[in-house]
Design brief:
binds 3-isopropylmalic acid; IsoPropMal-DH-like_dom (chains A, B); about 350 residues; 12 helices; homodimer; Isopropylmalate Dehydrogenase
Chain lengths: ~350, ~350
């Protein structure tokens, strides 16, 4: 199979972790007889530095022409202290989501048996956790009208959703639930927000098309609690953009394996795969960042974008093996044990595929 | 001293836990020679049942005339399945906050040494946690314009803040920080929201009046993570209404003592004190609910509304003693040990004051 992949390394540790994901993907391609064409493109702070905008048109064209996008991370500290700066790396992220129509962000949280004791939660709370958030990614308060009034003394942001937007996200949720335990939790704040009432009403109406799926409705504040108390009581959760931002990040730390969690953003055009961690600027260039989340994102890409399940499983298997044998970067190493560099982890995975 | 207190027991277990708080407060008043007048008033589902609205004018007048309000909990399952019902108990809560001008919700999260192993977090993560959220309570997306367009196919909610609203909340934050470790964290989403940029800008401008306070700015998604990872790295946090709703609930479970966390809502008129837990309908009338959060809310009331610190300390001391001696309701009892009824805990506290 020919795989045409856009490669957006981004900022900070992005290029380093992407590098290892490319190595592992190429090795898999060789083993299974595929041919990958990687087309690199700029995004984030590095794109601002090079061409003045965080998501250049050329990058967009490369993404649109590709079968999938593999993305590293964006963000640079020089933009962090001034959130009102006119051009910012995050704008590239938002523009990319919007222009690629990536309306659904798929974020699993699961545990690795060998890493369970890294969790801030007690073992009995976290064991068996295997949930997936579907976060709406191109609507809500992120993209609604915003601005100032009264000489700048009043600020406003508008959260808007159409029934069609809710439907297409919820449809993915129902479908995913059907492939898993048939439990779907709709997270909203329907006791306060009109947009949440639209969400709830839309999901309630869709339920009849999925008679086997058991749907529950929970308020976002209650979910923020239960995620810490009994994360393994959840399976598939759907939610709007801002709630998803907060809850998926909360969920990502409970497993104790944040540096390992992959994600996918899917929608109208090319799908995008990326680690959920950030650009970790302090570690840039040190060859110490954990590449596993990006490598597992590549596995998601093989499976979801190309239907290559065996290839994905092969990647996951060798990642598991590396964890069990302790071939890990310093963030995962037990005190006093040997740690491996980013590139050494990649090399070991390639050698052990 | 004469203390004139409005008593809003509310729904579910509200009346039961309020009852114990009244017992303990009366005992304290007797001991320290104060005279409490309790004026009961209706709110929540019980008010809807009695007079058709969840926050009757008469209740509002009683609250306005009182020196402080002690509040139980509201909510009844018969309203939970239909979030679009025209009259709902939560509306009473929102109306009460607005009409009493309760713009700051003060929510501490702390640990009790004897209960630390109840936390879902590992001991080393939670030990020493002692933080306070100041949540803005009468603005933001809760109270902005909301509705439907396009024949009901589009829903919207507007988040609005004025600089003055941010200032009065932030002022309380700076003042509280000065009485504690002089660390203030402003939680926002300034990389996306205009209202957050107004928050950040306003707090940045106020900083010069509090040169000793060290201010940090963190995105809401990052705080949702760090609260689970290192809750003891926080001290005073200020945030807007919706973020506060989510994060304070998240924070409340990490201590393992949710049934014990008190809160205060303060602002333009009478202050209100309430446990952070809900109306727990399943337990209604069973005399099993934990009354300690309400009793500790009464302690907050003695201290903050009346300046009666010694009285507050006496309540906290006897609560601590009850925990150490295991005089606790079933939610806190270790497996196989004796448990006490709601009213037995209250009786024990009164006897041991
Ligand atoms: C960088 C920021 C705009 C972004 C978001 O809020 O969506 C990030 O937090 C994320 O979750 O991908
Ligand atoms: C009941 C609901 C409207 C309320 C809120 O969201 O403010 C509650 O969750 C709270 O935090 O007091």
């Amino acid at each position: 199979m020919k795989l045409n992949i856009a490669l957006l390394a981004g900022d900070g540790i992005g290029p380093e972790v992407i590098n290892e994901a490319v190595k592992v993907s190429d090795a898999i391609a060789k083993k299974f007889n595929h041919e990958i064409t990687w087309t690199p493109a700029l995004t984030g702070a590095c794109a601002i530095d090079a061409v003045g905008v965080p998501y250049p048109d050329e990058t967009h064209e490369i993404c649109m022409a590709a079968d999938a996008v593999l993305f590293g991370a964006i963000g640079h500290p020089k933009y962090d202290n001034d959130p009102t700066a006119k051009v910012r790396p995050e704008q590239g992220l938002l523009l990319m989501r919007k222009k690629l129509g990536l309306f659904a962000n798929v974020r699993p949280t699961f545990t690795f048996p060998s890493l369970i004791d890294n969790s801030p939660l007690k073992r009995e709370r976290i064991e068996g956790t295997d949930l997936v958030f579907l976060r709406e990614l191109t609507g809500g308060i992120y993209f609604g009208e915003k601005g100032r009034k009264d000489d700048g003394e009043t600020a406003y942001d508008t959260c808007t959703y159409t029934r069609a937007e809710v439907k297409r996200l919820a449809k993915k949720g129902f479908e995913l639930a059907m492939t898993r335990s048939k439990k779907l939790c709709c997270v909203d704040k329907a006791n306060v927000l009109e947009t949440s009432r639209l969400w709830r009403e839309t999901v309630q109406a869709m339920k009849k098309d999925y008679p086997e799926v058991e749907v529950s409705y929970e308020f976002v504040d209650a979910v923020a609690m239960r995620l810490v108390q009994w994360p393994n009581s959840y399976d598939v959760l759907i939610t709007e953009n801002l709630f998803g931002d907060i809850l998926t990040d909360e969920a990502s730390v409970i497993s104790g394996s944040m540096g390992l969690m992959p994600s996918a953003s899917v929608g109208e055009h090319t799908s995008l795969y990326e680690p959920i961690h950030g650009s970790y600027p302090q570690a840039t260039g040190l060859n110490i960042a954990n590449p596993l989340a990006t490598i597992l994102s590549a596995a998601m890409m093989f499976e979801d974008a190309f239907g290559l399940t065996e290839e994905a499983e092969a990647i996951r298997a060798v990642v598991n093996k590396s964890l069990e044998e302790g071939i890990v970067t310093e963030d995962l190493a037990a005190k006093g044990t040997k740690t491996y560099k980013t590139s050494e982890v990649g090399d070991w995975l390639v050698a052990n595929l």
